[in-house]
Specification:
This protein is α+β, with helices and mostly antiparallel strands. About 35% of the residues lie in helices and about 25% in strands. The chain has 3 helices and 6 strands, in the order βαβααββββ. The chain has helices at about 10-15, 30-40, 45-55; strands at about 1-5, 20-25, 55, 60, 65-70, 70. The chain has a two-stranded antiparallel sheet. A two-stranded antiparallel ribbon has the order 3-4. A two-stranded antiparallel sheet has the order 5-6. Helix 2 runs antiparallel to helix 3 (about 45-55). The longest helix is centred in the middle third of the chain and has 11 residues, at about 30-40. The relative contact order is 0.16.
Length: about 80
């Protein structure tokens, strides 16, 4: 199907030490599935940091902004 480009900004970029990751997708993925795949290709420490910075319980932490094609996913269908 194609590639998905994930960009990191601000403090998350500094903490992870990476500005962008590209993953292959053979089908349409939800934002949650994309983030799970990103976590799988990072080393364990960075994957844990990504999890800690973005999520709480079953959703995003307050103040986390994820854009899909420039639009906040909170205004779309969420994760």
């Amino acid at each position: 199907m194609g590639e998905v480009r994930v960009k990191f900004f601000s403090l998350l970029r500094l903490a992870l030490g990476v500005s962008e990751i590209t993953i292959s997708a053979d089908k349409a993925l939800t934002v949650k599935e994309v983030l799970q795949r990103v976590g799988k290709i990072m080393d364990r420490e960075k994957a844990a940091l990504l999890e800690e910075k973005l999520f709480e319980r079953d959703g995003l932490k307050e103040g986390v902004i994820i854009l899909l094609n420039g639009e906040n996913i909170l205004h779309l269908k969420g994760l």
